[in-house]
From TrEMBL:
GO terms for molecular function: magnesium ion binding. The keyword Phosphoprotein does not apply. Keywords: Thiamine pyrophosphate. Coiled coil: none annotated. This is Transketolase.
Length: 260
């Protein structure tokens, strides 16, 4: 997989530092937040650019893997939302009433149904508005995800774009050991979806994949290959850091790595 680290945006790098600072104050879902961060950054940049256009409606981003909300908070903090600088009092999943949070999520497996419902509503109202849903690869173990996959294809929801954070790990172990869904691409294709595979840490490749997805006449899924704990060697591909808190020495070591 190509290494997109050299093309990280300054915002995503700052957000990585912020996620680490959160984990110094309280336990957070570090591994997933660091794997999904570049995906969320690409989606937020896309939404911001479109919203800035005259008359554009904001396209919702549904973070279905809500335990990785620390990446979203950190990216919003880097964009000037001061509320997200201090993790004290922040909920552990996306919650209504917080700036930049489009949809509240919690239990895994529900986000795609929400996103498909939004996309269907826009279609019926003849509103040209995309809907983005971010799933985890472990979340694909939930049967409700595949019900929504079938519904979206049946209703021809071509403005629905899913990005799967394929980091290969979940709380119980390697994703393929818990419930093997490999290969993923043919499964989505068999339900009538367009499938695009990409390096989930390369912002240029992610942007191109999202461009392609929105040109397709059917719902699209971007399978974004990522690394759990991305950017910090002692966290990468480690279940130890699915949830964790950093002591002073660990924080210092992690921040040094980000500067290198």
């Amino acid at each position: 997989m190509p290494d997109g680290s050299a093309r990280q945006t300054s915002i995503s790098l700052g957000a990585r530092r912020t996620v680490l600072s959160y984990a110094h104050e309280r336990p957070v879902h570090l591994g997933s937040s660091l794997s999904v961060l570049d995906i969320l950054d690409a989606l937020l940049r896309r939404v911001e650019a479109r919203t800035a256009a005259a008359g554009a409606l904001r396209s919702p981003v549904v973070l279905s893997k809500g335990h990785a909300v620390w990446a979203l908070y950190a990216l919003l903090a880097e964009r000037g939302h001061g509320r997200y600088r201090d993790p004290v009092g922040l909920p552990g999943h996306p919650t209504d009433g917080f700036p930049g949070v489009d949809v509240a999520t919690g239990a895994l497996g529900h986000g795609l149904s929400i996103g498909a419902g939004l996309a269907e509503g826009y279609r019926l109202d003849r509103v040209e508005r995309s809907v983005y849903v971010v799933l985890g690869d472990g979340e694909l173990n939930e049967g409700s995800v595949w019900e929504a996959v079938m519904f979206a294809a049946h209703r021809h929801l071509d403005r629905l774009v899913v990005v799967v954070d394929v980091n290969g790990l979940q709380q119980e172990g390697p994703t393929d050991d818990v419930l093997c869904l490999t290969p993923l691409a043919p499964k989505w294709q068999s339900f009538g979806w367009s499938v695009i595979e990409v390096d989930g840490h390369d912002p240029v490749a992610l942007g191109a994949a999202l461009d392609q997805a929105e040109r397709e006449p059917v719902p699209s899924v971007v399978l974004a290959r990522t690394v759990k704990g991305r950017g910090v060697t002692f966290m990468e591909n480690s279940l130890r850091w699915h949830v964790g808190r950093l002591d002073d020495d660990q924080l210092a070591e992690a921040l040094r790595e980000l500067e290198d």
